[in-house]
Amino acid sequence: MTELPPSDAVPHLDEVRDRGDAPRGTGGAAVALADRRGRDDDRLRRNAAYLGKRLLGAAVSLVAVIFTSFFLFRIIPGDPVRVMTHGRPVTIEQKEALAREFGLDKPMLEQFVSYLLGVLRFDFGESFQYNRPVLSMVGERLGPTLLLVGASLAVSAALGLWLGVQGAWKHGSTADRVNTGVALTLWSVPSFWLGLILIVVFASGLGWFPTSGMKTPGVTGFDMVLDVAHHMVLPLVTLVAVVYAQYLLVMRSSLLDEMGSDYLTTARAKGLRDTEVKRQHALPNALLPTTTLVFINIGFVLFGAVLVETVFSWPGLGKLFYEGLSVPDLPLVQGLFVIFSAAVILMNLVSDLIYPLIDPRVRP
Amino acid sequence: MTSAASTANASPRQLTWARRRRAVGTFWSSYRQNRAGLFGLAVLAVFVLSALLVPWIVGEEALSVTRPPGEPLQPPSGEFWLGTDRSGRSVLDLILWGSRVSLTVGFAATFISIALGSLIGILAGHFSGWMSGLLLRITDWFLVMPTLVLAVALAAVLGRSLSTIVIAIGVTSWPTTARLVRAQTLAVEARPYIERARALGGGHWHVMTRHVLPNVMPIVLAQTTLMVAGAILTESTVAFLGLGDPTTPSWGSTIQAARDTGAVSSGMWWYILPPGIAIALVALAFTLCGRAIEAVLNPRLRSR
Amino acid sequence: MKFRTNPGGRGLRTVLSGLLVMLLACAAALFAGSGAHAETKDEKTLTIAVSQEVDSLSPFLAVRRITTALGRLSYDFLTNYDPKTGKTIPALAESWTTSEDGLTWTYKIRDTKWTDGQPITAEDARWTFDTMMKDEAAATANGNFVENFESVSAPDPRTLEVKLKAPQATMLALDVPILPKHKWEGVGDYSKFNNDQEFPIVGSGPWVISAYEVNQSITLTPNKDFWRGAPKFDKLVFRYIDDSDAQVEALKAGEVDFVSGLTPAQAKALESADNITVNKAKGKRFQAITLNPGAKLQDGTAFGDGNKALQDPVVREALVRTIDREAIYKTAYGGFGEANGGYIPSRYKDYHWEPEGDAVIGFDTAKAGELLEGAGWVKGSDGIRAKGGTKLSFRFNVHADNPQYVQAAEMMREWAKEAGIDLKVEPVSEVGALLDAGTYDILTTGWSVNPDPDYILGINRCSGLPAKVGGPYLSDAYYCNPEYDKLYAAQLAELDQPKRAEIVKQMQEQLYKDNVFVVWGYADQLEAFRSDTIASMQPQPDPGGNYDSQDGYWSWWSATPVGEEDEAAGDSGGSSSGLMLGGGAVALAALAAGVVFLRRRGATAADDRE
Q1: Does one domain contain both C15 and C90?
Q2: Chain C residues lying within 8 Å of A83, measured CB to CB
Q3: Number of neighbouring beta carbons within 10 Å of residue A214
Q4: pLDDT tens-digit readout, C244-301
Q5: Which pTM value belongs to this model?
Q6: Which residue of A103, B154, B292, C75 sits 20 to 30 Å from the alpha carbon of C195, by its own alpha carbon?
Q7: Do the chains contact at B304 and A256, CB–CB below 8 Å?
Q8: Cα–Cα separations (whole angstroms), residue B208 to B12, B118, B217
């Protein structure tokens, strides 16, 4: 494989993408777009090659994920049949019948081939525990997860960008420092712990919000919309609190970068007013990395929502995955793993593809 | 201070050391101007000190569950400043012992992660062709894998212990570092003096260890401090998911023990708040240090 | 580092306005939400918090506690268990007879109706059992009950006849939901049918499952024509709340009315909460460890790598003597439990046995040391005893998801150390793999015991051992004792209850002496409910019993809403509650609830003292 310049178009974003559950770093270290400012000759051919390479890369990752999903969960010691039958009166025959039904009596290779053929048809099999197709279970829970993750992304991006812009405008001011300090502090707090504290204070203490769940049973119509919004406040605040810091920091630092660059000085020298320069030149350019970060983040926030969903009993995908692991409910965890990872791959691909389109400096 | 006169007839080795001392001096004088960084450093110093001295301050008998110093789940008092846990041990003592465990986990996991990440990053950046392609693919592959799932699977396979958690975090968190280091390696190798070194007969090993490594070290250092914060948080997350080692008094497992006891809904704030605050403080301290180091190393960032 | 604040600064205003926007959004949702809550108050709803998700609503497949309980509520069984004594009482079967040889059982089926108005006949029962015998998928959940069935027939609509292969004492404990044949016989593949497409679900129990929202709630409505009488609440909702703390917070906030599975700390804290009654019921479960006596297959082939020292009865006894059962229940279970070495929990008075006098293998680390010393196990330089190269160092695999087990294990490690035994506490998510491979020394375990002890005794038979390594195995002790097996066969064939109980006790004594299956005792089942919603409920057993996971539908069936208790009890408070319901005065309701609460508090406090 040959090396093309934009192969990691956004390195300074990589370090901040893992919030929620993984090691992370703050924005900064703009390690350089320097080595990847492409030359403009023969752009069409390069564009095609770039696109092809991105797509191929994503496809390879996807295949790797599908293979991993099968074998990763099979090395976990644990016998689904035993877990599912423990503590209740069963006969040996019932246990054997279960193993047969799950296909666990067949050789590993055979299981793998049938899994692979299934995945190609978007069929992830049936959950051991729930006797239902994995895909339909995912369908049921995708809504709540998307709602929570989508809302938190929107709020945290809006909040982070806005505060980031304010911070950069007035950088060094008290407000800037307080803002950055608060963001960094919230970012350092374990999200599940924050969720628990919020429940104690705002739900059971002050009684402002429901403690858990997504809606009150039996409420319908427009009231239901309000009811869901009411239930969503605390989980949303928890997710936003731990996520918005990175948008703030990236926005702030890229804006500072832009404001220091030569073309702005030129613009100013030409007599343009300062605010105009900022609005029309610095801001649009600084928005690029943050936008990309938002895209890249979707996949990870999706998975990071596991913790918040668990704390607030939000009926989303995260909890399902975690419950599946303890059995292990192989079809369920395999399917969810592939879906989560595919979401990440897709978002990476999207950000890779749109970045060169919107950033004139990064062109194949 | 090294005067110009004494360096004139010093050996190359001494020269190098003098240069490094000077670099550290410069580094410190600009770091000192970053108040947030100093605050972070001070907090870290307190925690590291308590981690080192805890066997002498409270002693191991404070951790006994059959001969605890107090009654279970007592609220804070003059004797137990932060109350007692479910076995009757002082929560303050647990937090102090926990600093030892959590910092160890943080540093050890970071070491694995940084070592792996730097190695792969430098190799991927230095070599081109299939080697670089392969390494990049592996890095990308690890990047898209949900870290927690891998950690969970590893914890299940290797059994529950601190070392498992360290390995799980280390093995799953290196790709970020690898990509950073690779980018920096590419930038360094594009400089003219590397070409000169090559022309003078410097092999791969020479270029990588003598020229690339020293130049990527600063960025690795910044990454390290940020990663320790992440590792400590991940440890608490793994414990929250019930996959930690509940017999070791890390901050994460103390929070988990408090949850298992039902401390949150029983109003036992002294059991659930301190470990969470300790985690947040240490994570914040490392993050502040990391940002300060970044700012020092990258003058463009200094204004931030 | 200090952040200097500058109240007049423009920057700070930015921060504040940011926070304000978030707060406004929250507030909007807050008020909107409270509006949504205002309605549906005239209906009496009983909301139960559950932490398990629904696996399947098909009784053929459902194995989880939540769904088997739903089966109990919505389908009648042949027999039921008396709420006070736990003895078998008639249900769908009005009466029954046994043939001389004990091989033929005849049940007279009650003349009542399905909730869709169709009559219930013996044919429904025959079809249910017959399907479980013939269809592997239909046997998934309850196949064990029909294992010994030769044939089932329904000679007339009121008579069900079961022929057995061998006599069995458990024919009055067939905990199988009888299903409506007319709704079910059209189902093609029982392994795929979850019974969750058509609501309300046609059944025969006191409650009808009328709505189900995946992972959120299950709503039941009363079966007005239930032959034992209709339930008193208008609605029964099982609400899914995963986190135990969140459950308690929801109870305090009044979002749910009943919570079970409390931790000792939660129970203690709730005792002083307003309008909440805590119930401490004697446990149905025992907590125990099993010591690997050398894993063997049915043919006697040894496998696994269990420490050989545990095959020595003296070592096992010494180890058991390092366990302070009282301290475990005092500390780990917060005093809510009973230290007891008997296999069948003490709440089952008929079958429970416990050691007395010299038979007690009690906590005495000094004696444990002497026993080991006498058997030639000498302390090494590291303080751990050894003999001939074998060290008394054992892996102790603990269920990591059970905090009490973990806490007890840590305590046991410290006691064992005093006697020169090294326990390596290794928390694991799941012991199954270790158990199947025989690669363990000590495991924690716990089993829920049914009113009929047959199954829980049966798992420890030699015939229950796996046939091949990794093959199915029911128990978790690798216990095998021919004496025990003989007693088991005798109790199964004994139809005279007191005589059977005597044999069951002998079996427990044998188990206790062998120190392979070492029971610590029985933790209390801790529950709490809103006393401003529920005026009364039927516990099982009565008094001192539990409400959740009963053998039968008694608690939710009998639960009486506050304000309607006069109809049930006819006490003097009736007139005022009638008045306030008529007027709908919220303040009065709160006041009345307060009074009721105070009365109930007094009552529970008195109960506690007994």
Answers
A1: no
A2: 430, 432
A3: 23
A4: 888 998 899 888 999 999 999 999 999 998 999 999 999 999 999 999 999 999 888 9
A5: 0.82
A6: A103
A7: yes
A8: 20, 11, 12
